[in-house]
Amino acid sequence: LLASDRVKQAVKHMLPKGLYSTNSKIRNTVAYTISAIASLDDWIELFDIIVACLAGNEDSVHGAMQVLVEFTFELEEKVKTVGPIILSEIYRIYDSEAVFTIKTRTIAVSILNSILKCANMHIEPKDQLVFFNPLLPAFMEKMVTGLSSPNASNFHLKTEILKVFTYMICE
After folding, report:
1. Residue 109 in contact with residue 160, Cβ under 8 Å?
2. Helix, coil or strand: residue 2
3. What span, in angstroms and rounded, lies between the C-alpha atoms of 9 and 158?
4. DSSP assignment string, 108-129
5. pTM (2 d.p.)
6. Which of 50, 60, 43, 49 is nearest to 9 (CA)?
7. Positive or negative CA dihedral for 20, 26, 27, 30?
8. What's the pLDDT tens digit per position in 44-60?
9. With 80 as the cut, is the pLDDT of residue 73 above it?
């Protein structure tokens, strides 16, 4: 049984509101549902919705990040157009240590790793330099600084940073 276009539009209109929920289980479920729908159906305004969420409060940022975690696995050729926007937003989140929790900043680094892998598969090596500049060098510098932090509570964040560096060196 397929949903009518009217029903699809209604669902696409209502679902993103759940990304602003104060309940993380609701945000995670909505994020998973949004990415599942987006992978099967054209959702042209999705990245505008995600960018709006990323500019919101901690809850909406977390919700948008969860969508990106799920969705970056399926970006494929779309990485060329939406990758720079995502890269810019996750850099901003990672760099805003005073604003975002370690958990949210860790997710940003995880998304970076997914974008790197996707870009490696779908963007010609000669075009990757243009794709990743100027943000990637700044991002790398900030992550090196993050690794040298003596704060033991950053264990998961440091692990994700090491995964990025491992991927970049070994691939």
Report:
1. yes
2. coil
3. 40
4. HHHHHHHHHHHHHHHS-HHHHH
5. 0.83
6. 43
7. negative
8. 888 889 989 988 898 99
9. no
